[in-house]
């Protein structure tokens, strides 16, 4: 396979959660690969930093300040992206939030918020991107962000894990429905990755994670955002042209309980 299979020159990508962590690394890498990248997030200042990183490296990016759980706002952002750069060839639906509480203490509003961002937000982005791809007749690649949390029982992570399990089912169902339009749909399910999301855990829990990783991960380390961005690039590019409905697990070799 020639390296040019990873070249995204002339293509457009829409990345949610692009202001931080995995989403930022993904937006920067897709731009490095040649794509014009539309970066969506709720965090305005951090989003501006992503834009600067892409533009300083000679890439092209557009910001969209949008809450992915707001379907109308997401549709408006996608329409603006299409009008600026044409239909997206790639969607990376990365935006997500963490929530932890024991099942017996889980409140309805926590469940609703996590499902709204981590599941409905992915669904709305997939719908908006896929409709634009189909209308324009362009082949596309949609990448959703699941988690190794779906591979294990994680105390405290019911809301998060349930939303990510729903993302996995969304991914497989969409792959089955959209294959006839030459649209591929795959998920990335990272293990523990060093980002602001995981950094918000306290120092003790961070130490426990690092100790567990050193003990049970074949690679003996936690992931970095770039590790996951490269998995997304693979799925976004022609290098994965016969891959759809799959879950790619960049997790250091194990699905680790948090
Ligand atoms: P992060 O907190 O660094 O980044 C998440 C981004 O999503 C932020 O920029 C945030 O502003 C944005 N976001 C949150 N709610 C939003 C909303 N309603 N609308 C638009 N944007 C919103 O986290 P991260 O670690 O980079 O996580 C990115 C994705 O990867 C998430 O879906 C997360 O569940 C998943 N993931 C992370 C890990 C990990 O260990 N870090 C592991 C598995 C999966």
TrEMBL record:
Gene3D superfamilies: NAD(P)-binding Rossmann-like Domain. Pfam families: adh_short_C2. PROSITE patterns: ADH_SHORT. One of its GO terms (molecular function) is oxidoreductase activity. Coiled coil: none annotated. Keywords: Oxidoreductase. InterPro entries: NAD(P)-bd_dom_sf, Sc_DH/Rdtase_CS, SDR_fam. It comes from the Bacteria. SUPFAM superfamilies: NAD(P)-binding Rossmann-fold domains. Belongs to the short-chain dehydrogenases/reductases (SDR) family. This is SDR family oxidoreductase. It comes from Streptomyces marianii.
